[in-house]
Amino acid sequence: MKRFMIQLIPVILMAQVHYAKLEPVETYQIKAAVSGLVLQAHDEYEGKIGDEKAVVQIDDKVDRSQKRALETSLKVYETSMDLTQRMRNNQEKVYRRERDYYLRIKNLKTKSKTEKDRVFSSMISAKNQLLTLDEKRATLQKQIADTKYQLTMLKDRIEKKSVRAPKLYIYKVSVRRGDYVNPGTPLLTAMDLDAGRLVVYLDATEVEDLGKKVIYLDNRPTKMKFDKVIEVADDVHISSYRAEMVIKDPKRRFSSLIKVEVKEQ
């Protein structure tokens, strides 16, 4: 009689090991919003944190000239509007006096028809002058509104020609002085280094009850949780689910690999 010995092999659940590259929490590809000639491109700012100084300056000489002309036109229109309003106020007083006088005499038998017609004509003339001033005021209002709109658009255009990256790490300046850029041309790449981002691809078993599990980074348990888990499997990493974690004030150098494990408590 043969005896069969069944050997029991303990099943040890091992956590899968992932390696993720620590990347800046945000990377910005700043592109030209307007066309123009590049006057300055400070590639010496690469590797530094940007401030309010322009990293890339696109020619805005014509825009600034147009801005000054529009500002002058706006002042003229506003002055004309003020004078027109004052003339209208005076003309309205004249019209009211003419109207009140006509209303007093129109039924008086002591006033001749000729006199009444003269006063009526004077009243209508005063009214027409008032309407003319109203028409001029309406035209000025439109001119002022149009000029303010053009100024707003021009200021925005000028602002877009001076490309800054305040508080961002300037990774690369993509243009040089003398280049001509069109809308959409890459100007510079800037990064937010205040936090880091880790991206790993978990399998279905790891994603299940993920909130109850412990995340280990470089073999050390943490209290951190994934900030984002995509519930649909990834197109490239088949049957895996993308999970992202933001690390504030990272101590590790960016682009270094970090070991990530998801374990049961």
What order do the helices and strands come in, and which of them pair?
Blueprint: E1 17-21, E2 23-31, E3 36-41, E4 56-58, H1 61-105, H2 113-160, E5 162-163, E6 169-173, E7 180-181, E8 186-202, H3 204-207, E9 214-217, E10 220-222, E11 228-229, E12 241-248, E13 257-263
Antiparallel strand pairs: 1-13, 2-8, 3-4, 3-7, 4-5, 6-8, 8-12, 9-10, 9-13, 11-12
Helix pairs in contact: 1-2
The proportion of strand residues reads 25-35%
The run of helices and strands is: EEEEHHEEEEHEEEEE
Poorly predicted sequence stretches spanning 5 or more consecutive residues: 1-13
> In angstroms, what separates the terminal alpha carbons?
47 Å
Total domain count: 2
Helix-strand makeup class: alpha+beta
Q: Gyration radius, to the nearest Å?
A: 38 Å
3D shape: elongated
Largest sheet: 5 strands, antiparallel
Total helical elements: 3
Report the oligomer.
single chain
Helix content: 25-40%
The total count of strands amounts to: 13
Mean pLDDT: 91
What would you note in describing this structure?
By secondary structure, the chain is an alpha+beta fold. It folds into two domains: 17-59 and 167-263, no CATH class; 61-160. It is built from three helices and 13 strands. It has helices spanning 61-105, 113-160, 204-207, and strands at 17-21, 23-31, 36-41, 56-58, 162-163, 169-173, 180-181, 186-202, 214-217, 220-222, 228-229, 241-248, 257-263. The strands form three sheets. Strands 2, 6, 8, 11 and 12 form a five-stranded antiparallel β-sheet that branches. It has a four-stranded antiparallel β-sheet with strand order 1-13-9-10, with no helix packed on it. It has a four-stranded antiparallel β-sheet with strand order 5-4-3-7. A hairpin with a 2-residue loop joins strand 9 (214-217) and strand 10. Helix 1 runs antiparallel to helix 2. The longest helix is centred in the middle third of the chain and has 48 residues, at 113-160. The model is unreliable at 1-13 (pLDDT under 50).
